[in-house]
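Standup notes
- DV: blocked on the single-chain target, sequence here:
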Amino acid sequence: MKLRPIFFNKLDVDDRLKLDMNRIIIASSMGAIFLTAISGPPFSGFIRSLGVSNMLYGVLMALPVISGLFQVMSAYLMGQIGSRKKTFLIGGFIHRFLYIPMVLLPLLFPACEKSIMIAAIVFFMMLSAIGDSFNYVAFYSWMPAIIPENIRGRFFSCRQAVYTLTTLLSGLLIGYILDLAEGFVGFAIVFSIVSIFGLSALIFYFKIYDPPLNTENNSKMKFTGIWKSTLDHKDYKQYLIFWAVWIFGYNMAVPFYNIYMLEYLKMGYTHIMLSTQVVLN
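- DV (later): unblocked, structure below
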């Protein structure tokens, strides 16, 4: 069945671009359901349920952030692959699929040695986070290549509005399910469902136009040259310093704020998702 545009019906652009923008918005809203679960209190609760210490909890929650180091490699490999779409889809599949075996492990192998269980989850988390770095780099290179600059603001504001509404509604539903089905059963149900939504979102990207990627310069530039050309840019280097300080403070506080609400305030997931989603969105 052919997709009919829901958004931008009156926008003066060709039909292909109009359909592509609708596909991106629908896929982003489905991806929001997945991201709401893995980047907030539900995933913090899952990690804490493994019985880890504060130190180990902090290390585990830092793994997705550490994967940001692979983004430079992702940009380099995307140039070697020669396609934003292929890089995005490969990274997206790895990132979203691996959460299913990750949350099923404690449920399927409850008698497994704790250290082995955590080591397996660390392995899955690292692979998933590396996949996300490919996904992230390809997406933010792909979108400006297909969305004209004169309508880019309108498009991203519409996408963000739909994304925000989906995050709010899905967050409340996820919290409600986790309060009803406690323990690893609840986590397995929630993360399996949201992973399916995340994987299904990738289907919409298959039909989106992928402009040719200029690989002439990429083939000549060495991997170390990417670092050098980036750090030699004065303004961008200042931005990187600012962003590093900001992210450091943010990631010091947020993971343990989730634990504070769960373990010290004794808040249920529904109340936590209600408070965080309303404040943030």
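- Follow-up: The mean pLDDT is 85.
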